[in-house]
Design brief:
793 residues, alpha+beta, six-stranded antiparallel β-sheet
């Protein structure tokens, strides 16, 4: 069965061959004496119609055409050919190629005439010319192999002919290019396997890319596109196969350069890190363009600062060499003014060095034979130098490769400059954020405290997490954590403003819900853009949690503005998530904030945290909260150890958000450090309050404070009895200072003023302010409390 039923028949016989052409015989008078069946097929005349007739009757008289006489054509002693117009039986005129050849027949002169359609002859001649061109002039290399895969023939365009085809005749195909290799992926890499496959199956293999060095040009590496076809004769017998190859080195390298540029566009500058960008340049360029890539930068650029100006080219640079940031090493290097490196930096143009072994700062064991120095240019000038070295590839850097290297260097320069700018801004934002966060937490007696702040991955940027511990009156402490959505300088600055605002409002002794309500109004005002500067939304999405813990009562009150509630581990070891229902994030308004109150036993651990501690790209927030709650089951461990456990429990890898964790272990002030006294609203009770104060201070060993404390207590109790209508409560607390608190049911607070010489009153609060460290007023649901702190001797 024919494997190619639609393929045209190929016949290499000439149309004038006697086996195919129309043939006739003319006698000496030019009459037809012989008429073959082939002549009848060509012109349609039967033998009866033409035998004995003058042959001239078969010639068509074309206007303007001079017909040669048959006698002259028949009288030659050698074959003569011409083109004649012949008459067909159906009236058509056939333009034919006619050959006249003398014939001796029994002593009588005769002529054999052979004719064929002229167009058919021209087509056959074109086929011969094509074959001749393939064999002698075509750029396509043709090589014929026998069934043993040995060379039989090669045309003059093949590299074998250029190297002398005779010495390869009869040799195996594997001997032709012993160091070459197929770089196509969809076929066997071995040429013998490919040829065996074609011989066995008859299936042609086309478009194979082969890389190697031609025998006629052993220095330069070439790439060919090869195809293999099986050869069979007319009987279907296997003759061998032939290979057609086309040198596509220039096209292949152009495609490689284009693909390299596409790869460079995706990879170079993808990170905001100077070292990683330099490594990306090396990873893209090696080994396709160079065997090694070095990047020389000033130390200021690596550190994220502005490159120095006015220095000599090539002076005090750091060389980075390696394929990955982990492998990168930095080596100081300087170039003399006469070096090609300095020339490239000074002229801002690429320079090719044909003798790089003499170049300063050479690293590596293999000596390069060709180097290309390309300056790293930005808008502000020269940023550094990129060196492309070749040691394994014997080809020197050509014009196209220099252009490609310049393009890669430009991309790398943009990436390095962006990384430098980002590093500078990130460092500034990190310094700003750390300066706005507490450098150390104040000493207090209400709770033991430990904290961790972990910034996000440097590629993400500085975030807006904050935390704080604020000492309040009555030995209480305010605890807060918050988060500003976003990263960068604006998030850090917003965080600083909010932390300062929370501290200011906390010192007013506001309860948590009231504090968040006021903070919400301030954030809403800040989020209204004053101009179309695009910064109005920076404060949207702010979350905050604020809590107040009282070590005297063990009472803790907190409220949340969109922030995760705290996790509590009591002294018995049970862990629970607070029932706090978070209100809306700050700045949205419209919904109230509610207080949640909880009584904490002595030694309870409370975890305040931001979502970066419990949420990441791999797990949801519920799983993170369960993970943190499990850590808190070890609540008897030191707080610092608990912090480390909580941090190490986070998933490894780059973190996309800041993480802030604040742990407190509660303390209770015992009854021996707190004294309460309820007084009726009678002015005579002032002396009683003073006497009890002096007695209590003597019991505490603070007799030296008796006079000052009694004076402060008498003034505060006098004011409360004078202006309040109900009982007055006096509380003394021995803490890091002596705390004196007087509570009543009035909501009006006294004001400090400077009394004139003739005023009868107004000097009491002035004396309190002079004799105490701090004093103030806080409001409660039933009235107010005036407090004063006296330093312990």
């Amino acid at each position: 069965m024919d494997r190619f039923p639609n393929a045209p028949d190929v016949d290499f016989h000439s149309p004038l061959d006697l086996s195919k052409a129309a043939a006739a015989v003319l006698d000496a008078e030019g009459r037809v004496s012989g008429w073959g069946s082939s002549a009848q097929r060509l012109l349609g005349h039967s033998p009866e119609e033409v035998l004995g007739q003058p042959a001239a009757r078969l010639l068509a008289a074309t206007p303007g055409q001079r017909l040669p006489t048959l006698c002259k054509l028949c009288q030659g002693h050698r074959p003569r050919s011409t083109v004649l117009d012949l008459c067909c039986r159906d009236g058509r005129t056939l333009r034919a190629a006619v050959t006249f050849g003398p014939l001796a027949h029994r002593g009588a002169a005769a002529t054999v005439v052979v004719a064929a359609d002229l167009d058919t002859l021209r087509g056959w001649e074109a086929q011969l010319a094509m074959l001749q061109g393939l064999a002698t002039e075509s750029a396509v290399g043709l090589t014929i192999f026998d069934t043993d895969m040995r060379v039989v023939w090669g045309n003059v365009s093949t590299d074998l002919e250029l190297a002398g085809i005779a010495q390869y005749i009869g040799r195996p195909a594997a001997d032709l290019f012993p160091e070459g290799e197929f770089i196509s992926r969809h076929h066997p890499p071995d040429e013998d396997q490919i040829m065996e496959h074609v011989l066995t199956t008859g299936e042609p293999i086309t478009g194979m890319h082969y890389r190697g060095r031609a025998p006629a040009d052993p220095v330069r590496e070439h790439v060919w596109s090869c195809s293999y076809h099986r050869l069979v004769d007319a009987r279907g017998e296997l003759l061998g196969l032939f290979e057609e190859s086309l040198d596509i080195t220039d096209r292949y390298r152009a495609q490689e350069r284009l693909s390299l540029l596409v790869r460079a566009g995706k990879r170079i500058g993808a990170s905001l890190d100077v070292r990683r960008t330099a490594a990306e340049l090396a990873d893209v360029a090696v080994p396709q363009l160079a065997d090694e890539v070095l990047v020389d930068l000033p130390p200021a650029v690596i550190e994220g600062r502005q490159p120095p100006t006015g220095s000599a080219p090539g002076h005090s640079l750091l060389r980075m060499h390696g394929r990955t940031p982990e492998e990168f090493r930095t080596t100081p290097v300087s170039y003399p003014p006469s070096s090609p490196q300095a020339q490239s930096l000074a002229t801002s143009r690429p320079v090719v060095d044909a003798s790089p072994s003499r170049a300063p700062g050479r690293t590596g064991s293999a000596a390069p034979h060709s180097c290309l120095f390309v300056p790293l240019l930005t808008r502000n000038g020269v940023l550094g130098l990129a060196t492309f070295r070749r040691s394994n590839n014997p080809d020197r850097f050509g014009p196209e490769e220099q252009t490609l290297a310049v393009e890669l260097a430009e991309r790398a320069a943009v990436g390095i400059d962006n990384a430098r700018r980002y590093t500078s801004q990130h460092a500034a934002a990190l310094v700003l954020q750390r300066s706005l966060l507490p450098q150390h937490l104040p000493e207090q007696s209400a709770a033991e405290v430990a904290y961790r702040y972990l910034p996000a991955d440097s590629r993400v940027g500085v975030g807006g997490d904050w935390f704080d511990l604020i000492p309040l009156s009555g030995a209480r402490v305010g605890l807060t954590v918050g988060d500003v959505v976003g990263h960068g300088m604006h998030a850090a600055a917003t965080m600083g403003r909010l932390r300062a605002t929370v501290r200011t409002l906390a010192l007013l002794d506001l309860d948590p819900a009231e504090l968040l309500t006021r903070l919400d109004g301030l954030v809403a005002q800040d989020s209204e853009p004053a101009a179309d500067d695009g910064l109005g939304d920076e404060t949207l999405g702010v979350t905050c949690l604020y809590a107040i813990y009282d070590p005297v009562s063990g009472r803790c009150v907190w409220a949340s503005a969109g922030h995760p509630p705290p996790i509590v581990a009591d002294a018995s070891g049970s862990v629970s998530l607070s029932a706090l229902a978070p209100g809306p994030p700050l700045g949205l308004g419209g919904l109230p904030y509610e207080n949640v109150e909880l009584s904490l036993s002595n030694g309870s651990v409370v975890a305040f945290f931001t979502d970066g501690v419990v949420e990441d790209r791999y797990t949801d927030i519920d799983s993170g909260i369960d993970r943190l709650a499990h850590v808190l089951t070890w609540q008897r461990c030191p707080l610092e150890e608990l912090c480390d456990r909580a941090v190490s429990a986070r998933p490894p890898g780059p973190q996309t958000d800041d993480a802030t964790l604040l742990l407190i272990r509660t303390r209770r002030l015992g009854a021996d450090r707190v004294a309460d006294l309820e007084l009726p609203p009678d002015p005579a009770m002032v002396a009683h309050a003073r006497t009890d104060t002096e007695r209590q201070l003597t019991d505490w060993g603070l007799a030296d404070l008796s006079f000052s404390a009694a004076l402060v207590v008498s003034e505060l109790v006098t004011n409360s009895i004078r202006y309040a209508s109900g009982p007055v409560m006096l509380r003394l607390i021995k803490d890091r200072s002596l705390l004196c608190e007087v509570s009543d049911n009035a909501h009006t607070a006294p004001h400090l003023r400077r009394a004139r010489r003739d005023d009868e009153g107004g000097r009491g609060l002035f004396l309190v302010a002079q004799m105490s460290q701090r004093w103030g007023t806080r409001y409660t649901a039933s009235g107010k409390t005036i407090w004063a702190e006296l330093a312990l001797p």
